[in-house]
Known about the structure:
With 344 residues, the protein is of the alpha/beta class. The protein has helices at residues 39-46, 156-159, 165-174, 189-200, 214-222, 251-257, 297-306, 324-332; strands spanning 2-6, 14-17, 27-36, 56-57, 62-69, 98-101, 104-106, 126-127, 139-143, 148-149, 181-185, 204-209, 227-230, 239-244, 259-267, 288-291, 316-320, 339-343.
Amino acid sequence: xxxxxxxxxxxxxxxxxxxxxxxxxxxxxxxxxxxxxxxxxxxxxxxxxxxxxxxxxxxxxxxxxxxxxxxxxxxxxxxxxxxxxxxxxxxxxxxxxxxxxxxxxxxxxxxxxxxxxxxxxxxxxxxxxxxxxxxxxxxxxxxxxxxxxxxxxxxxxxxxxxxxxxxxxxxxxxxxxxxxxxxxxxxxxxxxxxxxxxxxxxxxxxxxxxxxxxxxxxxxxxxxxxxxxxxxxxxxxxxxxxxxxxxxxxxxxxxxxxxxxxxxxxxxxxxxxxxxxxxxxxxxxxxxxxxxxxxxxxxxxxxxxxxxxxxxxxxxxxxxxxxxxxxxxxxxxxxxxxxxxxxx
Length: 344
Ligand SMILES: [Zn+2]
Ligand SMILES: [Zn+2]
C-alpha cells in the first residue's frame, strides 16, 4: 500500500510503499477513504507532542470501509467495555461497513480512570497516528471497540473532520455546561463545527481570529456566529464560556478577561505555548480555567448521531495522499477555512 511516513522531528512525511497491515485479534482492516488533518499532526511533526516509536503513519480522523475482521478475542473479558463507559457494545462491524477511527485507539479498561468513565485520561492509552499507525495510508488496522459507525448523511470527506475536530470540540463544549454565550478562539476545523452546534442549541457563538483575518471572520458569521472579531477585541457581551483552539498561551488571559463571573475557559489543544502571567483579578469571581484531553467513546456515541441532526456541514479541502505535506503546511499557514482532508 501507499503511505506517508513520519520518520523524525523536523522532516516532512515521506511517501513509501509497504505491505498492507493484517488485522490482529479484535481488530479491523480498514480501507481508508478519507483522513482529516488535525493541528495535533503539526505538534507531532514539530516534536511538541512526542512519537515514542517512529517511524509512524500519522492521521487520526479516519473514515473507511471494513475489508476484513480479525479473529475473535479469546481472553475472557478482554473485549468488554470498561464499566462507566456506557457499556452497550456497538454491533460487531462486518466487511463492507463504513466506520470512523478517532484519536483514542486503545485503553487498558482496568485502571481507575477507565473504570470511572474517564478513559480519556487512561495512563496506558494508545493514540491513533501517534502510538498506532493511522490513516495517511491506503489501509489501516484499528481495534474494533474504538471504531464507530459513520452517519449515512455524510460523504467520506465531509465525515472525516467529525472524528477529532468534531468529537473533541463537542467534549470541550460539554465542559462549558449550559453557557449561552461562548467564545471560540481560533476559528479552525473544530470551531467551524461548534459554531453550527451552538446555533442549533440556541447558544451564541463569538468567533475570535487573528486581527485582520476578515475571510475567516466572514466564514464564522456564515456558519452562525453572532459576532466575529480579533482575539484582542472585547466582544459586545461578557461571555459565559470560551474555548481556546489556537495553540497560543497569550489567548488565556484575553479569554479570561472577556468572561462573565463564574465563566469557564477551556483549552482545547494538546499543546499550547506558555501562558503569560496575569493578575488574579482575571480568575477571581469563580472563573474557571481548564483543559480538555482526548475523548471517551461516550463522546463519540453522543456526537456522531447528533451531527446530522444539527445538521453539521463541514467545509473541507481535499488533498491526494502524496500531497499530505502540502495539506499540513497549508494548515500551518492558515491557507484554507474549515478542514483539510487527505484522500488516499
Ligand atoms: Zn486531532
Ligand atoms: Zn485505563
